[in-house]
Amino acid sequence: MDVRSCRNCGRLFNYLQGNPICPACKKKLEDKFEQVKMYIRENNLASMQQISDANDVSVKQLKQWVREERLTFSDDSPVGIECENCGALIRTGRFCAKCKNNMANTLTKLYAVAPPEEIRKKKDKDKMRFLDR
Question: Is 96 a member of any domain?
Fold first, then answer.
């Protein structure tokens, strides 16, 4: 059993996984999330600072929800965060579509299997040779 102190209120609680906050603080945070979500639906042109001020939530927490893809903004909204790779403005997640595609292509190339002809050429080249006497 892992007992920890809550990062927000300092109470002791039985820690299982995830954020090190107690169940009461988790409930408050989820309530704030629902409140922010409703505010964004009603005020889709509000800036990040306006959302933060109106709902008493830090901008850092709003950005975390966006990175976790829990919050998404419409295309006409002025709100966005930076892509962690190139810095482009995105509406949700951690990376822009271009960076996601580049990463996917890189991973695909890493795990691609060489065609049989190339394997055969390598095998012939790597054979042991003996000198004639």
Answer: yes
Do the domain assignments include residue 86?
yes
Torsion angle (degrees, nearest 10) of CA 93, 96, 98, 99: -70
Beta bridge partners of 15: 2
The structural domain count of the chain equals 2
- Shared domain for 89 and 36, answered yes or no, is no
Q: Which two tokens stand for residue 104?
A: 């996917």
Q: For 78-130, give the DSSP string.
A: S--EE-TTT--EESSSSS-HHHHHHHHHHHHHHTPPPPHHHHHHHHHHTS---
23-80: pLDDT as tens digits? 999 999 999 999 999 999 898 888 889 999 999 999 999 999 999 988 888 778 888 8
In this structure, the answer to whether residues 93 and 109 fall within a common structural domain is yes
Q: What type of residue sits at position 50?
A: Q
- Structural element, H or E, at residue 14: strand 12-15
Domain that holds residue 3: 1-42
Distance CA 83, CA 128 (A): 52
Predicted TM-score (pTM) of the model is 0.71
